[in-house]
């Protein structure tokens, strides 16, 4: 997230727990404490697991619905009693709720793009012994 006019930039990691727990709003709030204005902030949701790859059980969906019934639209029917969760759209929704309208979502699905991107979920599903690395840089 960036507000160029205020000279404020931030990065936040928001998996489902963080996104549901308010990390996005907290990051925007902290940016605003340093002079940012949500109407000027531009945000990007980086590569992450996308809906086609993110199968979850009914208890996962119930956690979101218990928080806000409108969150149901982030879930598509999956196989049997499973659902497909749209994490990037949920994060974009949380950015919008924080007052940000300039939002881009990277099209990269970390689970599906195994030659280029690491996915913790994919490595667990495959019982792989290693783990990925993450490196990020932001600059004004």
Question: What does this 3D model show about the protein?
Answer:
- With 140 residues, the protein is an alpha+beta fold.
- It has one domain (2-125): CNF1/YfiH-like putative cysteine hydrolases (4-Layer Sandwich).
- It has 5 helices and 7 strands, in the order E-E-H-H-E-E-H-E-E-H-E-H.
- It has helices at residues 16-21, 23-33, 58-67, 87-97, 120-125; strands at residues 2-3, 8-9, 42-45, 55-56, 75-77, 83-85, 102-105.
- A hairpin with a 4-residue loop joins strand 1 (2-3) and strand 2.
Helix content: 25-40%
Sheet with the most strands: spatial strand order: 4-6-5
Structural class: alpha+beta
User: Based on DSSP secondary structure assignment, what is the total number of beta strands?
Assistant: 7
Q: Could you state the CATH homologous superfamily? A: CNF1/YfiH-like putative cysteine hydrolases
Into how many domains do the coordinates divide? 1
Q: What's the CATH architecture name? A: 4-Layer Sandwich
What's the SSE pattern? EEHHEEHEEHEH
Number of helices: 5
Rg (CA only): 16 Å
The profile of the biggest β sheet is:
3 strands, antiparallel
Mean pLDDT: 94
Query: Given this structure, which CATH class is correct?
Result: Alpha Beta
What name is given to the CATH topology? CNF1/YfiH-like putative cysteine hydrolases
Low-confidence stretches: none
Distance between the termini: 10 Å
Strand percent estimate: 5-15%
Characterize the overall form: globular
């Amino acid at each position: 997230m960036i507000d160029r006019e205020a000279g404020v930039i931030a990065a936040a990691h928001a998996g489902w727990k963080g996104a549901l727990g308010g990390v996005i709003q907290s990051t925007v709030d902290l940016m605003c404490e340093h002079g940012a204005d949500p109407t000027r902030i531009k945000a990007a949701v980086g590569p992450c697991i996308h809906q086609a790859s993110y199968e979850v059980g009914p208890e996962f969906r119930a956690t979101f619905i218990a928080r806000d019934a409108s969150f149901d639209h982030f879930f598509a029917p999956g196989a049997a009693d499973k659902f497909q969760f749209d994490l990037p759209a949920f994060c974009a929704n949380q950015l919008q709720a924080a007052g940000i309208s300039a939002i881009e979502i990277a099209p990269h699905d970390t689970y599906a793009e195994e030659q280029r991107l690491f996915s913790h979920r994919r490595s667990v599903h495959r019982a792989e012994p290693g783990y990925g690395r993450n490196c990020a840089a932001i600059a004004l």
